Amino acid sequence: MKVLILETADTAQERVVSLIAQTMRDKPNAVLGLATGGTMLPVYEKLVALHKNGGPSFRDVTTFNLDEYVGLAPEHPQSYRSYMNDVLFGKVDINLQRTHLPRGDARNPEDEALRYEAAIAQCGGLDLQLLGLGHNGHIGFNEPTSSLKSRTRIKTLTRETRDANSRYFRADETIPTFAITMGVGTILDARHCLLLATGAQRPMQSPR
């Protein structure tokens, strides 16, 4: 593990973008694990800007996102599929058929979790997994007590997590109670993990 403590959030974001870009240059058909949330917005903005200014192509890249809310269709404005389409996929030259998120509206979420885990394995695993850190230390929707061996599965969202995410939903919308998330074991199977955390303390970005 390598920990980098950087002076500003912007500097940390730039370093994360440079590491993602280097992965894509070294392996144009890289399999990237992606994350959502407010921490990732400036990362994707900078990644898009780099791409448009001669940076690496996404043409042959495959992506798998960490999670998706159970019950939300991909077209729902608060789904993570909509988030990714808006902030990254719709702004670069990626093939949408190579972008993967769990289907939140799957008839059987448990089967969907198994299918998603198998799809990651069929692609040869993740070359680089991008991670953020929730308010209570959760990664994906894995709460701090999650097993280190856990695989993609259904997780019940804690009240704290639901409250933190409520700002993204209208007052008349029901905040999802469940999510499909990669497990900790699934995440740790990635060949490299890259975690970005910025907040009240000095920003820290830590690749493994």
UniProtKB/TrEMBL annotation:
PROSITE patterns in alphabetical order: GLC_GALNAC_ISOMERASE
Pfam family, one: Glucosamine_iso
GO MF annotation terms: glucosamine-6-phosphate deaminase activity
Domain Glucosamine/galactosamine-6-phosphate isomerase residue range list: 8-201
UniProt-listed InterPro entries: Glc/Gal-6P_isomerase, Glucosamine6P_isomerase, Glucosamine6P_isomerase_CS, NagB/RpiA_transferase-like
Enzyme Commission designation: 3.5.99.6
Alphabetical UniProt keywords: Hydrolase
Protein name, UniProt field: Glucosamine-6-phosphate deaminase
Organism: Paracoccus cavernae
Phylogenetic placement of the source organism: Bacteria, Pseudomonadati, Pseudomonadota, Alphaproteobacteria, Rhodobacterales
Gene this protein is translated from: nagB
